[in-house]
Amino acid sequence: MARPAVLWLLLALTACALAAPQNVVSKHALESLSLDDLDHQLQTCPIVQELSAVKHAHHAAAPSSLTTRLFAVLFPGSPAVNALLATLYISGPPNFLLALCPTNIDPSSLSVMVAFAVGGLLGDTLFHLLPEIFLGEDEPDRARFVLVEPNRNLVLGLAILVGFMTFVAMDKGLRIATGGAGHDHHSHAHAHEGDAQTTTAAATGADTGTGNGHVKSRRKGKGKKEDADEDQHKEVNPSVKLGGYLNLIADFTHNITDGLAMSASFYASPTIGATTTVAVFFHEIPHEVGDFALLVQSGFSKRAAMASQFVTAIGALMGTLIGIAIQEFGGGNTDGEDSMPRNAGLWGTSLTWGDMLLPFTAGTFLYVGTVAVIPELLETGPNKMQELRKTLVQFSAVAVGAGIMLYISWHD
User: Fold this and answer.
1) One GO BP annotation here (predicted)?
2) What is the pLDDT of residues 174-228, one digit of tens each?
3) pTM of the entire structure?
4) Which of 13-17, 110-114, 255-259, 303-307 has the lowest mean pLDDT?
5) Phi-psi bin for 172: left (phi > 0), alpha (psi -120 to 50), beta?
6) How far apart are alpha carbons 287 and 282 in whole angstroms?
7) Rounded to whole angstroms, how far apart are CA atoms 83 and 74?
8) By C-alpha distance, which of 296, 331, 291, 293 is closest to 315?
């Protein structure tokens, strides 16, 4: 991947010019150099070489952290191989966990897990993705400098906005399709209100006290599980069932963006890839359980709901493969070969299409971690003391999730 805006400070170049005048090149030659060429030129500077030697010695003396050793075991291959492995990690275990979930699980009970996932997503975005997007990844064995390139940060900011607005459009489209219900990535307790909610409760056999009395009396009259199941399927409101199918489509699309995140992060750096995998994994567990509950409420059997979730997981694999293709063939993995001049990329910058995936991912993470989830955490009930305790637990869960991301970033 072409290093993003790296290795050039005016002060550093001036010092190098004074220390080694033979390294000075003309203005025209500088304009035609790529970032990799500038990297090579700057690394020949005696001052930079001394800084790199000190940094390398400090890194060699420090013992490797537990997370570094663990990530080395989990992700031992190339960026493409590691991205595919990460996709299996985030798609497989959460789906298998659904076998242990009861069919009458209340999605609202996942609020603490959701808060933990929010901390992980926002922590990964703020501690890893955004610094990597604008400044690049630190390297343990050499000093690195940042080239402040005209309009480059604007293009990266635009990619973040596009990622954010893509999820806004997805959510808005689903709300229109479902008559305002929308797609909540974690809790579906409020997805269907009024008659639809009552019908759903009756369809799942939940005796909430607000269900359809006729349905409950008819079930008592039959007294057989098979007849009760038959009545359940008959009583599912068509709009609720449609919401279940539309939710599957939204999940499939959402998983594609998760796959894109895997590929973009691993091509950025192994550390970014590993932390993004951890954040997405934390997010996927309550996401999958909440979607599973909605599918059961929509009339799916437990086996059919699990099978549907496995099908949507294919979207993550598709997204990863698409991201790998963009990185490999879209100029995002040059590694110094056939490097182009700094202004020969997108809109006169050094950026390539492969460089757009990581900011797009950051935009989607910002949406999921804020707009799609925070309103759920802001919901309160009439019992003030109970809500206060619940809030403290949720805030603690957010802090733990973000703290894990900060710990990984600090020690890697």
Assistant:
1) intracellular zinc ion homeostasis
2) 878 777 655 554 444 444 434 434 333 333 444 434 444 443 444 444 444 444 4
3) 0.71
4) 13-17
5) alpha
6) 9
7) 11
8) 291
